């Protein structure tokens, strides 16, 4: 009932933006994708698999290993190169400060893009990613892991890059608050575009969307709790200046306004909080 109420409210909130999108689509041609080395998977929303939407969330498996391995590229945003001195901590979701990281086996090879970490299976955890000279990044999985997985690319940013991006998009960043970076996964686990997001009511968050590799936001930037521009093959969208508290991220498809899923996360200050929203939490 709560999700249906929120979906109805979301429809009302973004209806003007959907009208603008429809108008723009009628007068604009499709953009041909360029050679973007950042893209790892086909993000065309028209061929995504949403067959699991509307189905009940499957129960956790009864038989699974004690540990699972999560592997993903951990690179620098501008160059897509590995970052010297990278580190990963596994943190309990109930301890956002991560003062007591969980014991884990981390494999980081200097000069290699891919990193991996062993995680206790079936536990609600997140990763805290660090590198000298870069903003901390947290990675929230949207659920517990029960088998080895390969994740999408995480690109870390320096303060200069974040400042330049914020200036370009006219986003007045507050260093005491957090930044949410959200991407959607379809029923196969493929990262896809074509999503809109909302978060819990708050007075400070400012929505943005990365479109063709550039951050776009309303000008002037106005606090809001819904994104108005669908994600594309970049594939991130989210909110700046999010209060450091527990929030729920709610994702819908711009095509038909069908619910994708939700993610409950604790927001960390002065951190890029990367959030995976999976199709009805199908991990």
Low-confidence stretches: 16-43
The number of helical runs is: 2
- What do the pLDDT scores average to? 85
The number of distinct β-strands equals: 17
Largest sheet: 9 strands, mixed
Shape: globular
What are the secondary-structure elements, in order, as H or E?
Answer: HEEEEEEEEHEEEEEEEEE
Estimate percent helicity.
10-25%
Q: Structural class, judged by helices and strands?
A: mainly beta
Radius of gyration: 18 Å
Instruction: Report the portion of residues in β strands.
Output: 25-35%
Q: Roughly how many Å apart are the termini?
A: 23 Å
Q: Please give the domain count.
A: 2
Brief summary of the model shown:
The chain is mostly beta strands and 283 residues long. It folds into 2 domains: 2-56 and 183-281, no CATH class; 67-156, Sandwich (Immunoglobulin-like), CATH 2.60.40.2190. It is 13% helix and 34% strand.
Spell out the key features of this protein.
283 residues; globular; Immunoglobulin-like
How does this model look, in words?
The two termini are 23 Å apart. It contains two helices and 17 strands. The protein folds into two domains: 154 residues, no CATH class; 90 residues, Immunoglobulin-like (Sandwich). Strands 2, 5, 6, 9, 10, 12, 13, 14 and 17 form a nine-stranded mixed beta sheet that branches. Strands 1, 3, 4, 7 and 8 form a five-stranded mixed beta sheet that branches. It is 13% helix and 34% strand. The protein has 283 residues and is mainly beta.
